[in-house]
Write a structure and sequence with these properties.
The structure holds two protein chains of two kinds. In chain A, helix 5 (about 75-80) crosses helix 6. By secondary structure, chain A is mainly alpha-helical. Chain A has helices at about 10-15, 25-40, 45-55, 60-70, 75-80, 85-90, 125, 130-135, 135-140, 145-150, 190-195, 200; strands at about 100-105, 110-115, 160-165, 175. Chain A is globular, with a radius of gyration of 20 Å. Chain A folds into two domains: about 1-55, no CATH class; about 60-200, Nitrile Hydratase, Chain A. By secondary structure, chain B is mostly helical. Chain B has a single domain (about 30-105), classed as Nitrile hydratase, beta subunit (Cyclin A, domain 1), CATH 1.10.472.20. In chain B, about 55% of the residues lie in helices and about 0% in strands. Chain B is built from five helices and no strands. Chain B has helices spanning about 30-40, 50-60, 60-65, 70-85, 90-104. In chain B, helix 1 runs parallel beside helix 4. The longest helix of chain B has 15 residues, at about 30-40. Chain B is globular. Classes of the chains: A mainly alpha, B mainly alpha. Chains A and B meet through helix 1, helix 2, helix 3, helix 8 and helix 9 of A and helix 1, helix 2, helix 4 and helix 5 of B.
């Protein structure tokens, strides 16, 4: 695998990332990686396995959790009171993060998640965070003008509903349990899960009823 | 709190302009930086923790913090912490970087 040989992968990059201006950081990354492998901190196989493990995580996992909560009240209660344990034990998804708090959207409250200091995000439930989640604009303004920020996503929250913003930390990450759209009562879990997008679990969008 | 005693990363409540709901496909080298960090932090002996990574990012000079990319901040912090902890040697790391640059 040319990608895992530290001495050739820089050439791969030159081909793939012609628009990458700062070669220094890529070299620093390759140097750090090769030295750590030589010192036995991990192996090239460990690297491959880890990348695959993260690549496998996607919002589809979160959507399964949400659909289950919509169809099983007892599960939902456990999810809201002990997020991490419930996801791990009952959904068999290891959230890895120190703790996961699930916050429920209702007719009265809409929840939004941000990490103002950096980019903490439930990666092992939703996959890697999107760029905008890590942007200075989102990080700075989500806590200052959440309704304005949501509007930039095309999401308008009824003024009668409270907007609650949750600022994540490395040890406390949030998952929004969106509201189930009207007219979907009695749907099977799989069909419901198909309605749930990443942004609805971060709180920048609401679940739209199926057309 | 007055804004001038804030550190660069502490931007909650400031106004950094409108959000562009952009998506960006993560690049292969960025995936590798992410994997190095997770391999180190998920080991039993936790060679580098997530908190240390963040502390290292927060300690970057403000002008650098603002001009380099997300995973560039990660690898800067990560390599600094590894040197600080004696896992890597600065001279050895610099030499390896030069070697890679020369091979290009």
């Amino acid at each position: 695998m040319p990608h895992d040989d530290p001495h050739t992968h820089v050439h791969d990059h030159a081909a793939i990332e012609a628009d990458e201006p700062q070669g220094y950081y890529q070299h620093l990354a390759a140097a750090t990686r090769s030295l750590l492998i030589e010192k036995g901190a991990f192996t090239a196989d460990d690297m491959r396995a880890m990348i695959e493990r993260i690549d496998e995580r996607s919002p589809a996992l979160g959507a399964k959790i949400v659909a289950r909560a919509w169809t099983d009240q007892a599960f939902k209660a456990r999810l809201l009171s002990r997020g991490k344990q419930t996801i791990k034990e009952e959904m068999e998804i290891d959230p890895v993060a120190a703790d996961i708090v699930v916050v429920e959207n209702t007719a009265e409250v809409h929840n939004v998640v941000v990490c103002t200091l950096c980019s903490c995000y439930p990666v092992f439930i939703l996959g890697r965070p999107p760029d905008w989640y890590k942007s200075y604009a989102y990080r700075s303004r989500a806590v200052r003008d959440p309704r304005g920020v949501l509007r930039e996503f095309g999401t308008e929250i009824d003024p009668a509903r409270e907007v609650r913003v949750h600022d994540s930390t490395a040890d406390m990450r949030y998952l929004v349990l969106p509201m189930q759209p009207e007219g979907t009562e009695g749907w099977p879990e799989e069909r419901l899960a198909g309605l749930v997008t990443r942004d609805t679990m971060v709180g920048t969008a609401e679940v739209r009823p199926a057309a | 709190m007055s804004d001038d005693i804030r550190q660069q990363h502490d931007m909650g409540g400031l106004d950094k302009g409108p959000v562009t709901p952009s998506e960006h496909e993560i690049e292969p080298w960025e995936k590798r930086v992410e994997a190095i960090m997770r391999l180190l932090s998920m080991r039993k002996d936790r060679i580098v923790t997530v908190d240390e990574l963040r502390r290292g990012i927060e300690e970057l000079p403000p002008e650098l913090y603002d001009t380099i990319g997300y995973y560039e901040r990660w690898i800067m912090s990560l390599s600094n912490i590894l040197v600080e902890k004696g896992v890597l040697d600065r001279a050895e790391l610099d030499a390896r970087v030069r070697e890679l640059e020369a091979a290009e």
